[in-house]
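Sample entry (123 residues):
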Amino acid sequence: MAGNRIERVQEEIRRELSDILQQRAHDPRLAWVSVIRVEVAGDFAHAKVYVSSLGDEKAQQATFQALQKAGPFLRTELGRRLHLRRTPELHFQEDHGIEASVRISQMLDDLVPPSETSEEGES
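Predicted structure, serialized as tokens:
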């Protein structure tokens, strides 16, 4: 039963943070941030927020720094939207899942010889 509540709170935090980042955060570095998933501690004191962003490594570092700086604002906004006894402290983590997917897709594309892909398109 407690596991279901944690899962619901995690999903609610993910959804609300995504909305706050799109609607209320005015820092342009946060424009392309996606909240991938949230893991909340059992006591609701801390939450790991896994995020992904577009851009090269330098842009991603700037985005991550902007998230760290916006952390107190995001927590306050989250507290206003959620009706929890305690709003968890947010700890941002970079999620490299999308980057890994792109690399795997590129490797798979490299395995198929160009002549085969052009023949398939002509059929």
